Amino acid sequence: MPELLLLTLSFLLVVVCLTAVLITAIPAFQELARAGRSVTRLAETLSRELPPTLEAIRLTGLEISELSDELNQGAKTANEAVKQVTEGIKSVRRTTNSAAIATRSALAGLKAGWQSLRRPRRLPQQKSNRDLPKSP
Length: 136
What we know:
By secondary structure, the chain is mostly helical. It has one helix spanning 2-118. The chain is rod-shaped. 0% of the residues are buried.
């Protein structure tokens, strides 16, 4: 009999311990259930919101790529315009130098002409004694 009593007490002690474990585990199980529901809601929200967001990000990347291409094309066009302006400036300089040389030449010609017009003309004079050959 004492063995049966010992066995009964042991069984009763195991039941009490299991009951205590279950009582203390119930709040943990409730928190796990709450966390599971939160994860489910998060997964639903992600499955609803993530594809449109990823599509928007993809479209934004495409738009940025297009803008980059347009900027590159604009830079090339601006570079060509700068080259054309540079060539125009060089052409204007050459033309200006040519015009300056032509102007100097014209002014030199006018000056020479003016000087020749201002110079008194020599009238043919009769030969003087100096101009006649000397006789021996």
